[in-house]
Fold:
Amino acid sequence: MEIVDSLKELGLTDGEAKVYVALTELGSSTVGPIVSKSRVAYSNVYEILNRLIEKGLVSFIIKEKTKYFQAGSPDNIKEYLNKKQEEIEENKKKLNKLLPGLEKLKDIPPQQEAEVFVGIKGLRMAYEKLLAGLKKNDKHLFFYVHEEEYSEEADNFYFSIGDLMKKLDIRGVCNEYGRKSEFNKKAKYLKIHYAGFPIPGNWEVNRDMLLIVSWKKPIIGILIKSQSIVDDFKEYFESAWKAAKA
Structure:
Protein backbone atom coordinates (compact mmCIF):
# COMPACT_ATOMS: atom_id res chain seq x y z
CA MET A 1 0.00 0.00 0.00
CA GLU A 2 1.47 3.33 -1.08
CA ILE A 3 0.40 5.30 2.02
CA VAL A 4 1.78 2.63 4.36
CA ASP A 5 5.12 2.70 2.53
CA SER A 6 5.24 6.49 2.72
CA LEU A 7 4.53 6.44 6.46
CA LYS A 8 7.33 3.89 6.94
CA GLU A 9 9.69 6.25 5.12
CA LEU A 10 8.71 8.91 7.66
CA GLY A 11 9.84 6.68 10.51
CA LEU A 12 6.85 4.51 11.47
CA THR A 13 7.22 0.77 11.69
CA ASP A 14 5.26 -1.46 9.32
CA GLY A 15 2.74 -2.29 12.05
CA GLU A 16 2.37 1.34 13.14
CA ALA A 17 1.76 2.49 9.57
CA LYS A 18 -0.85 -0.22 8.92
CA VAL A 19 -2.72 0.46 12.18
CA TYR A 20 -2.69 4.23 11.64
CA VAL A 21 -4.08 3.89 8.09
CA ALA A 22 -6.71 1.39 9.27
CA LEU A 23 -7.82 3.75 12.05
CA THR A 24 -7.95 6.69 9.64
CA GLU A 25 -10.36 4.71 7.47
CA LEU A 26 -12.40 3.25 10.35
CA GLY A 27 -12.78 6.37 12.46
CA SER A 28 -13.44 5.57 16.13
CA SER A 29 -12.99 1.82 16.60
CA THR A 30 -12.41 -0.99 19.04
CA VAL A 31 -9.50 -3.36 18.64
CA GLY A 32 -11.29 -6.09 16.68
CA PRO A 33 -11.97 -4.10 13.50
CA ILE A 34 -8.47 -2.57 13.69
CA VAL A 35 -6.92 -6.05 13.65
CA SER A 36 -9.12 -7.15 10.74
CA LYS A 37 -8.46 -4.09 8.62
CA SER A 38 -4.74 -3.62 9.35
CA ARG A 39 -3.98 -7.37 9.29
CA VAL A 40 -1.56 -7.07 12.19
CA ALA A 41 -1.48 -9.83 14.80
CA TYR A 42 -3.92 -9.39 17.67
CA SER A 43 -1.07 -10.10 20.11
CA ASN A 44 0.81 -7.05 18.77
CA VAL A 45 -1.96 -4.51 18.25
CA TYR A 46 -2.10 -3.09 21.80
CA GLU A 47 1.66 -2.49 21.86
CA ILE A 48 1.44 -0.77 18.45
CA LEU A 49 -1.50 1.38 19.56
CA ASN A 50 0.37 2.43 22.72
CA ARG A 51 3.38 3.48 20.65
CA LEU A 52 1.15 5.52 18.33
CA ILE A 53 -0.48 7.16 21.36
CA GLU A 54 2.97 8.08 22.72
CA LYS A 55 3.80 9.62 19.34
CA GLY A 56 0.62 11.68 19.41
CA LEU A 57 -0.84 9.96 16.34
CA VAL A 58 -3.66 8.07 18.07
CA SER A 59 -6.02 8.88 20.93
CA PHE A 60 -8.74 6.91 22.71
CA ILE A 61 -11.91 7.29 24.74
CA ILE A 62 -13.76 4.83 26.95
CA LYS A 63 -17.45 4.15 26.33
CA GLU A 64 -19.23 1.77 28.65
CA LYS A 65 -15.95 0.28 29.84
CA THR A 66 -14.72 -0.31 26.26
CA LYS A 67 -11.78 1.51 24.66
CA TYR A 68 -12.35 3.18 21.31
CA PHE A 69 -9.28 4.31 19.41
CA GLN A 70 -9.10 7.09 16.86
CA ALA A 71 -6.40 8.33 14.51
CA GLY A 72 -5.24 11.86 15.09
CA SER A 73 -5.28 14.56 12.46
CA PRO A 74 -2.72 14.19 9.63
CA ASP A 75 -1.25 17.44 10.97
CA ASN A 76 -0.15 15.42 14.01
CA ILE A 77 2.29 13.57 11.73
CA LYS A 78 3.98 16.88 11.00
CA GLU A 79 4.22 17.55 14.73
CA TYR A 80 5.66 14.06 15.25
CA LEU A 81 8.32 14.72 12.59
CA ASN A 82 9.16 18.08 14.17
CA LYS A 83 9.77 16.35 17.50
CA LYS A 84 11.97 13.76 15.81
CA GLN A 85 13.96 16.52 14.16
CA GLU A 86 14.41 18.25 17.51
CA GLU A 87 15.67 14.98 19.01
CA ILE A 88 18.11 14.53 16.13
CA GLU A 89 19.46 18.06 16.58
CA GLU A 90 19.81 17.51 20.33
CA ASN A 91 21.67 14.24 19.75
CA LYS A 92 23.98 15.99 17.28
CA LYS A 93 24.86 18.53 19.97
CA LYS A 94 25.60 15.72 22.45
CA LEU A 95 27.74 13.93 19.87
CA ASN A 96 29.74 17.08 19.14
CA LYS A 97 30.54 17.32 22.86
CA LEU A 98 31.64 13.67 22.92
CA LEU A 99 33.82 13.74 19.80
CA PRO A 100 36.93 15.37 21.34
CA GLY A 101 36.98 12.74 24.10
CA LEU A 102 36.47 9.90 21.61
CA GLU A 103 39.32 11.20 19.44
CA LYS A 104 41.63 11.20 22.47
CA LEU A 105 40.77 7.57 23.19
CA LYS A 106 42.06 6.63 19.74
CA ASP A 107 45.50 7.94 20.70
CA ILE A 108 45.79 5.85 23.86
CA PRO A 109 48.03 2.84 23.11
CA PRO A 110 46.78 -0.61 24.19
CA GLN A 111 47.95 -1.34 27.73
CA GLN A 112 50.89 -3.72 28.04
CA GLU A 113 52.25 -5.05 31.31
CA ALA A 114 54.05 -8.03 32.82
CA GLU A 115 54.14 -9.77 36.23
CA VAL A 116 56.46 -12.42 37.62
CA PHE A 117 55.27 -15.22 39.93
CA VAL A 118 57.59 -17.56 41.85
CA GLY A 119 56.89 -21.02 43.29
CA ILE A 120 53.83 -23.30 43.09
CA LYS A 121 51.59 -20.88 45.01
CA GLY A 122 52.72 -18.02 42.83
CA LEU A 123 52.10 -20.08 39.71
CA ARG A 124 48.55 -20.82 40.81
CA MET A 125 47.98 -17.09 41.25
CA ALA A 126 49.27 -16.55 37.70
CA TYR A 127 46.85 -19.14 36.30
CA GLU A 128 43.96 -17.65 38.27
CA LYS A 129 44.70 -14.28 36.65
CA LEU A 130 45.14 -15.84 33.21
CA LEU A 131 41.83 -17.70 33.42
CA ALA A 132 39.78 -15.10 35.34
CA GLY A 133 36.59 -14.00 33.63
CA LEU A 134 36.67 -16.65 30.91
CA LYS A 135 33.30 -18.09 29.97
CA LYS A 136 32.31 -21.56 28.88
CA ASN A 137 33.92 -22.55 25.57
CA ASP A 138 36.29 -19.55 25.49
CA LYS A 139 39.45 -20.49 23.58
CA HIS A 140 42.71 -21.26 25.37
CA LEU A 141 45.90 -22.35 23.57
CA PHE A 142 49.16 -23.75 24.92
CA PHE A 143 52.58 -25.24 24.19
CA TYR A 144 53.85 -27.66 26.83
CA VAL A 145 57.22 -29.39 27.06
CA HIS A 146 56.84 -32.38 29.40
CA GLU A 147 60.08 -33.59 30.99
CA GLU A 148 60.75 -36.44 33.41
CA GLU A 149 62.50 -34.29 36.02
CA TYR A 150 59.36 -32.30 36.80
CA SER A 151 56.64 -34.55 35.32
CA GLU A 152 55.03 -35.59 38.63
CA GLU A 153 55.03 -32.08 40.13
CA ALA A 154 53.63 -30.54 36.93
CA ASP A 155 50.93 -33.21 36.57
CA ASN A 156 49.82 -32.77 40.18
CA PHE A 157 49.69 -29.01 39.72
CA TYR A 158 47.54 -29.17 36.59
CA PHE A 159 45.19 -31.65 38.26
CA SER A 160 44.81 -29.10 41.09
CA ILE A 161 43.67 -26.34 38.73
CA GLY A 162 41.51 -28.55 36.52
CA ASP A 163 38.39 -26.89 37.91
CA LEU A 164 39.55 -23.60 36.36
CA MET A 165 40.20 -25.12 32.94
CA LYS A 166 37.65 -27.83 32.16
CA LYS A 167 34.94 -25.38 31.00
CA LEU A 168 37.20 -23.93 28.28
CA ASP A 169 37.88 -24.87 24.66
CA ILE A 170 41.52 -25.89 25.11
CA ARG A 171 43.98 -26.92 22.42
CA GLY A 172 47.63 -27.64 23.01
CA VAL A 173 50.81 -28.80 21.29
CA CYS A 174 53.15 -30.97 23.41
CA ASN A 175 56.43 -32.71 22.84
CA GLU A 176 56.23 -36.49 22.23
CA TYR A 177 57.21 -37.22 25.84
CA GLY A 178 53.98 -35.45 26.80
CA ARG A 179 52.13 -38.65 25.87
CA LYS A 180 53.41 -40.05 29.20
CA SER A 181 51.84 -37.22 31.20
CA GLU A 182 49.12 -38.55 33.53
CA PHE A 183 47.33 -35.22 33.28
CA ASN A 184 47.29 -35.31 29.49
CA LYS A 185 45.94 -38.86 29.57
CA LYS A 186 43.13 -38.18 32.04
CA ALA A 187 42.03 -34.60 31.25
CA LYS A 188 39.57 -35.52 28.50
CA TYR A 189 38.61 -31.89 27.91
CA LEU A 190 42.08 -31.23 26.42
CA LYS A 191 42.64 -31.42 22.66
CA ILE A 192 46.34 -32.20 22.20
CA HIS A 193 48.63 -32.71 19.24
CA TYR A 194 52.14 -34.07 19.76
CA ALA A 195 55.10 -32.57 17.94
CA GLY A 196 58.17 -34.42 16.73
CA PHE A 197 59.87 -31.07 16.31
CA PRO A 198 61.08 -28.45 18.84
CA ILE A 199 58.40 -26.25 20.40
CA PRO A 200 59.13 -22.95 22.16
CA GLY A 201 58.46 -24.02 25.76
CA ASN A 202 55.58 -23.80 28.21
CA TRP A 203 53.41 -20.99 26.87
CA GLU A 204 49.67 -20.46 27.34
CA VAL A 205 47.41 -17.76 25.88
CA ASN A 206 43.86 -16.49 25.78
CA ARG A 207 42.41 -13.08 24.93
CA ASP A 208 45.38 -10.67 25.28
CA MET A 209 47.22 -12.62 28.01
CA LEU A 210 50.30 -14.84 27.69
CA LEU A 211 51.74 -16.98 30.49
CA ILE A 212 55.28 -18.36 30.18
CA VAL A 213 56.16 -21.07 32.71
CA SER A 214 59.54 -22.51 33.66
CA TRP A 215 59.29 -25.73 35.67
CA LYS A 216 63.04 -25.74 36.41
CA LYS A 217 63.80 -24.77 40.01
CA PRO A 218 62.83 -22.21 41.12
CA ILE A 219 59.48 -22.45 39.34
CA ILE A 220 58.66 -19.15 37.62
CA GLY A 221 55.62 -17.85 35.77
CA ILE A 222 55.71 -14.66 33.70
CA LEU A 223 52.29 -13.25 32.86
CA ILE A 224 52.28 -10.75 29.99
CA LYS A 225 49.38 -8.62 28.82
CA SER A 226 50.01 -7.75 25.16
CA GLN A 227 47.64 -8.22 22.25
CA SER A 228 50.42 -8.03 19.66
CA ILE A 229 52.46 -10.80 21.35
CA VAL A 230 49.38 -12.98 21.72
CA ASP A 231 48.46 -12.49 18.06
CA ASP A 232 51.97 -13.57 16.99
CA PHE A 233 51.73 -16.60 19.28
CA LYS A 234 48.37 -17.64 17.85
CA GLU A 235 49.70 -17.47 14.30
CA TYR A 236 52.66 -19.69 15.18
CA PHE A 237 50.48 -22.04 17.24
CA GLU A 238 48.09 -22.72 14.35
CA SER A 239 51.03 -23.67 12.12
CA ALA A 240 52.42 -26.00 14.79
CA TRP A 241 48.97 -27.49 15.46
CA LYS A 242 48.61 -28.47 11.80
CA ALA A 243 52.12 -29.93 11.62
CA ALA A 244 51.84 -31.96 14.86
CA LYS A 245 49.97 -35.27 15.27
CA ALA A 246 47.02 -36.19 17.49
